[in-house]
Amino acid sequence: MREGTLPLTPPVSLAEGERVVSIPSNGPRQAVPKTRRRRTKGLSMFSVGRQADVIAFLVNPTNAVAKLDTSNVREAAQTKRVQLQIVEARSKREIDTAFASLIQQGASALIVQVDPFLDGSGKQLAALAARHAVPAIAAHREFAARGGLISYGASLADAYRLEGNYVGRLLKGERPAELPVQQSVKVELVINLKTAKALGLTIPPSLLLRADQIIE
Question: What is the pTM of this model?
Answer without folding.
Answer: 0.71
